[in-house]
Write a structure and sequence with these properties.
It contains 15 helices and no strands.
């Protein structure tokens, strides 16, 4: 088990090692690592250190935040399940079903005002929760692995959603019609301050989800009972906790967070439903984000921003002569080094002992 300090410095070491590996690969390929760091700064804040006279282009950080929103929400989804002893690998399907619920509500229920978009977001979360209910129920009642069920439901969700999206009014073979303005998370204000980026009010949904995640897990007896169930089912059952119910609840809440990611995508980023032929991989990105963020609310937020930064930077890296695969290598390396957290902890402990022995030797000599 890692203590609080170790949960902070081990991911930081992993990130540093991942970036270092990316730099080594760039040097070996005859390219300068400065190109990578300049691109990351440009994406994060809109300022290009290589061209300071160009000023700040706020479109870059705007698009960076747009990319981060679903990644953070799926990271919260995976993190919540993991904190309660479950592994939600079905986030992709839950995102898709959340998107379907949100876009169907937007197109089929004609409301006006802010109530419409709120209803669409709620329905998206409920759709994700119901898709998470299936592996939760099978795990609770029949002890069927939620991993196997989740993987199967990812594909089922995509094909079911594609079928129903094509049935919506005026849908084509690839997409639905645009959702009405009353159901849209688009913001002229946010677009205006970010040079017409797609930044939208979905960022409010993300902030609320982060706060809710932290509050439920860390500050409620309900969250404690979920964590206790995940830690030891037999002891929890002996203590009088309703283990099967908690398993189902944890997967439904996890699914709801992923469903919110789907709602934010369809209501804010695209503003239409997409007939998909492949996954966006947001659900799988969420696994990496939860792992690097140590399933902590703030850690997941920061990890989501980092992974989004690396993802958005990939096509820009290619324009300056750096292979876009470098971003994937760095991301994968960070996850790899986090997976080696015990090895990093052992190395750090040995380094501390070495430094302490050296300092003690100096004191004895003096």
């Amino acid at each position: 088990m890692l203590n609080k300090k170790e949960k902070v410095y081990i991911p930081l070491i992993a990130i540093a090692l991942g970036l270092l590996l990316g730099c080594v690969i760039l040097v070996l390929s005859g390219r300068s690592p400065i190109l990578m760091f300049n691109t990351l700064v440009k994406v994060a804040v809109g300022f290009d250190p290589a061209r300071p006279s160009a000023g700040i282009n706020t479109r870059f950080p705007g698009e960076f935040l747009v990319s981060a929103m679903p990644i953070i929400l799926t990271g919260l989804s995976v993190g919540f399940a993991y904190r309660t002893g479950m592994f939600n690998i079905g986030g992709e399907g839950q995102i898709i079903m959340g998107s379907l619920g949100a876009v169907a509500t937007a197109l089929l229920l004609p409301f006006s005002g802010i109530f419409h978009v709120i209803l669409c977001i709620i329905v998206g979360g409920i759709a994700g929760a119901l898709w998470g209910f299936i592996p939760g129920l099978l795990k609770a009642k029949f002890n069927i692995s939620e991993v196997v069920v989740g993987i199967m439901l990812n594909y089922s969700g995509m094909y079911i959603a594609n079928y129903f999206l094509k049935l919506l009014p005026d849908s084509s073979a690839t997409r639905t019609q645009m959702i009405p303005d009353s159901a849209s998370l688009a913001s002229n204000f946010l677009a205006g301050i970010t040079n017409n980026s797609r930044l939208n009010w979905g960022i409010i949904v993300v902030i609320i989800a982060i706060i809710a995640y932290w509050f439920i897990i860390e500050r409620t007896s309900f969250g404690y009972s979920l964590r206790a169930t995940g830690f030891n089912k037999d002891a929890s059952r002996f203590a009088g906790l309703k283990v099967n119910r908690n398993i189902i609840y944890s997967m439904m809440i996890s699914g709801a967070l992923a469903g919110l990611a789907g709602a934010v995508l369809v209501l804010g980023t695209f503003r239409f439903g997409r007939v998909m032929v492949a996954f966006d991989n947001y659900g799988f990105d969420g696994i990496a984000v939860a792992l690097v963020g140590m399933c902590n609310a703030i850690g997941i937020l920061l990890a989501g921003l980092l992974f989004s930064l690396l993802k958005v930077a990939q096509p820009i890296l290619q324009t300056v002569g750096v292979p876009k695969d470098i971003g994937e290598i760095v991301s994968s390396s960070i996850v790899f080094f986090v997976a080696l957290q015990l090895a990093i902890k052992m190395a750090a402990d040995k380094l501390k002992l070495f430094v302490a022995s050296k300092s003690n030797g100096r004191r004895k000599k003096s």
